[in-house]
Design goal:
By secondary structure, the chain is an all-alpha fold. It has a domain at 27-83. It is built from 4 helices and no strands. Helix 1 packs across helix 4 and helix 3 packs across helix 4 (70-83). It is extended. The relative contact order is 0.13. The model has no long low-confidence stretch (mean pLDDT 88).
Length: 91
């Protein structure tokens, strides 16, 4: 495996950026919905998506799971999956 020394000015360093949200905006809820929609669009079942939310290896979804609970995730999945057009596999 190739090893390289740490560079303080590495242009490929991962950098996170936060943005202010308007008062009352549920950014965690929107993030959770996006996770579910993305996994649903690539064909994951509700059971598999729930397992991703339960797994600490998926830090974003797991953070939602810990903060909001399984019931919240299940309700949101039901809402997202009820809106999916099952006749079009590319939706």
């Amino acid at each position: 495996m190739l090893k390289k020394d740490f560079e303080t000015d590495d242009p490929y360093a991962l950098v996170g950026q936060g943005f202010p949200c308007p008062p009352g905006y549920d950014s965690m809820g929107e993030m959770a919905r996006c996770f579910i929609e993305e996994f649903a669009m690539i064909g994951y079942s509700e059971a598999l998506i729930l397992n991703l939310f339960k797994s600490p290896y998926y830090q974003g979804p797991h953070g939602v799971f810990k903060a909001r609970g399984e019931g919240y995730v299940r309700d949101l999945m039901a809402e997202v999956f009820s809106a999916v057009d099952r006749s079009n596999p590319h939706v």
